[in-house]
Amino acid sequence: MPRAAKNLAIFNCNAQMMLEGRDYNGAKIFLYRVGNLNLTKDTDDKVTNEQVFLSNILTLEWSLLDPKTQIAGVTVLADLEGFSLSTHASLLSPYYTRKSAEVIQDTFPLRFKGIHIVNQPGYFDAVYAVVKPFLKPKVKQRVYLHGKNFDELHKYLPPSVLPTEYGGQLPTADNKNWREQLFKDLPLILGETDGCEEETADSELKTNNLNLSTT
């Protein structure tokens, strides 16, 4: 399975991060803010579908460094604020929908305990209808559409571990600290134990422009 994104600069989009806290059952919380991803505008922050997919894999692989997460799993909090078909529809292509479903259901050695979707647009039911055929019944039962009903979200994710924009008690989500930890742990994720490799990785990571193997 591909294990890393081509360009770590995608994490500067502040679209992906693991929250510090856990849900009521001990699962780590993966915050995924699709609206922060620029897939169409020809600007410096433009990213590709493949970069998005592989950086999500890298995020999940980072979570596996924690033995507690290996047991308790991960809960996904997907924020669709800013999602638009004109910008993000390519993420729903059959190819990437199938690949993402395979990761969640079959190929990735991690327990996905729930997928909580918030701030989805009014037409999201039609979007979800495209994704549903790729999901097994067990996964479908773990998908929750909350909209802006954060009281309902709090039945699954405690306010004490959530940023204020989700009705939580923490400051607005910023992946800076987590991103720095991810970059620091990259040699562990990729199995680079040789000192020379670690030194090279460290120097390149400082530029946020490291091209990684995707094989």
From TrEMBL:
GO annotation, cellular component aspect: membrane
SMART domains to which the protein is assigned, alphabetical: SEC14
Record CDD domains: SEC14
GO molecular function, one term: phosphatidylinositol bisphosphate binding
UniProt-listed Pfam families: CRAL_TRIO
Domain CRAL-TRIO: 19-174
Gene3D superfamilies xref list: Alpha-tocopherol transfer (1.20.5.1200), CRAL-TRIO lipid binding domain (3.40.525.10)
UniProt-recorded name of the protein: CRAL-TRIO domain-containing protein
The species this protein was found in: Rhynocoris fuscipes
